[in-house]
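1st attempt posting a full record on here, be nice pls
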Amino acid sequence: MHYLKGAVDAHVHTCPHLNGRSATVFESVRQAAAAGMRAIGLMDNFQNSTGYAALAMAELGHLGVEVFGGLIMQPTAGGVTLEAARNAVDYGYGPGTGARFLSMPTHHTRAVARREGRTGLYLEAAFGVNDDGTIPDPVPAIMDLCAERDIVFDCGHVDGWEAVALVREARKRGCKRIRTHCARYDLDAIREITAMEAYAEFNFFLLTHATQVGLTHVDQEKHRAPSLTMDELAPRIRAAGTRAITSSDAGIFLLAPPVEAFREYMVLLEAAGFEEADLRRMNTENPVELFRIGSFM
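the predicted structure (as tokens):
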């Protein structure tokens, strides 16, 4: 458990969902506090999680765990629109409680839709970078907002080449804080992303038995997420060098609550040869820097 002291899990799914959850938002905060963690980040495929985070801080802030949220721009949460983004950055109970990240969709993307075998209008409407590598509107304006507010631009669940294009454009537009989800990317894409000083997140969920059954993520359809082995994941983490971040991506009822899932992940990484200094950088130092933990307390 000492790996969790002061740690940050920036990818927790304990907001309400179509699937059962292993803990509520309040329970996940109490469990994080009991483990001595410093912060957790709430992710929600259906709503702006900033409101849940603000409520958790208002009720449980005395426990010392910083809870932050943001907007994943799924259709159910307003879609990829500048209006939704502008609303999210000021949403909460006053200064310091707005969105800490604005994310491109995590499931309503062409990359995920193709993997799930979606067709027709769903696939046509799903988010993706243009085939020529240019960034579709209004994403550049959303990047400008992230740069203005000094919050995280999150590339969402896109293909590696799309993430590279998004990071390049975001950096050009002044974004200093960028998160990508690199667990499936090839090594060259990861190196290119991190060379542009974006952070590469690697989650525990894809290593677990939760990938063995179909789950609902954005609607009632059930789909399996193709799993990874540690032998496949570890080289990708190493390719990210000093820009890697670890997260649990837990909250689904099939897994232990996020705090325990995060602990199990640290033990797996240790067994795979990562040193304690590596783990501390990935689970504490990098997410603290990326999300400005402590700046809003």
